[in-house]
Amino acid sequence: xxxxxxxxxxxxxxxxxNMTPKELEEWLETDESKAVGDDADGESTxxxxxxxxxxxxxxxxxxxxxxxHAHMQKVVGYVHRHMKQGPEHDVETSRxxxxxxxxxxxxxx
Length: 109
Hints:
Layout: H1 3-16, H2 21-28, H3 31-34, H4 45-57, H5 66-83, H6 95-102
Pfam family, one: DUF3140
Region (Disordered): 29-66
């Protein structure tokens, strides 16, 4: 990836991930967070992604790797896709919102 691609990815990531590392860490400790997603190995993909997002957000831009940028792109894609699929009612306590929060995006923020 070129630096321009990295800059674009970082911009899109910062727009998609609207939770701070602290907010996300606290969320990931909740029962609601742990209750959503597939967890064949004991932890859902979204929950694992949330932990990685915290690490990425605490890393200086110049220290981000190609793998970090690839994960950032994955997060942006997930958030954009799932924002189009939201429920019409009871958003606040929906599995849809909980899943998005695992990926660092609170649709009610």
